[in-house]
Design brief:
The protein has no helices and 7 strands. It is mainly beta.
Amino acid sequence: MPADLPDTLDKTTPRSLRRRTLKRGLVTFAGGFMTLECTVRNLSETGARLVMENGAVPPDQFVLAVQVDGFEVDCQVIHRAADEFGVRFVGQRRATRQRRQQTVVSTGAAEGRSIRRQVPSPR
């Protein structure tokens, strides 16, 4: 491991389980006066992977708000690659007012139909 990387990136430390997501996030900094939109691509209890909109580059420390989940958290950038950024949560999540609700609607299968392979029943 290169000497300039912090000890917190040691391979023996287990990573938190990350869930794939596709949620809108808001990066806030400069005391709340500056904001950047982003997409949260994965999320865990300890961090997230963000994709920034329009080539924007966030500062090293900021507040991430995920409005659909109703929380905000202080973050520190630990990885940068093109328009993707890995962040570590450096504080506890704070509940915020949930601004909208996520809705998932089925659009294809008719009632009673399944995409699973049908197995004939034994006679």
